[in-house]
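Class, discuss our next protein.
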Amino acid sequence: MRKLSILAVLLLAATAHAQSLDDVVSKVMKEYGGEAAWQKVTSLRESGTVVPMMRKGDGKMTRFWQKPDKLRFDVTYPTEHEVRIVDGDHGTRNDKEVTGGSLDAMKLQAARLALPLLLVEKRASLHDLGTKDGVRTIEIPLSASLTLTVNVDMKTWHILRSTGKASGLEFVVDYSDFRRVNGLLFPFAEAGMAQGMPTANTKLEAIEINAPSAPPPPAAK
């Protein structure tokens, strides 16, 4: 009888664990504004400041993400202007084609801007890596060679960290300063690392949802 009771408990625990990933995704989406609202997001325009760790001078940044995997990242430093563009499997930096690990890094950057929507769109292929210290870890396969792993706080349902892996490289972003824009939740602060080394901190100042691809012309004087 006791063995049957233990087996029943184990079966119930296994069933609860199997269903819990759906619960986590559902609660994350609810906290971030709801799946229906996120499904209507076709583009994001974000602007702010980049504070690099390996160079002097902050950069003024604009990034424009368009569903499903297009990104234009435009940043102006005191002595340099850089434009990165990724469109699916193609990427350029200052009009020069980018391949290999550099392209993978840009593709991961584009994918990160689709959070938390990726949890829904990739639901069938998510890998549940379990819970530790109140944080749930979920791996999102993006392609045969790219993965994005997210850490979810089980109390707030915020995505606290994303870890992108590609070509033997690891890119980590920690998220904080969560705010709502038109009912959707976004992190306005990001701390980036590559291979364990800090790379840059990004502070967002504005986020436009479903913004046009080009900024509006200046108002006539």
Q: What stands out?
A: The two ends are 85 Å apart (CA to CA).
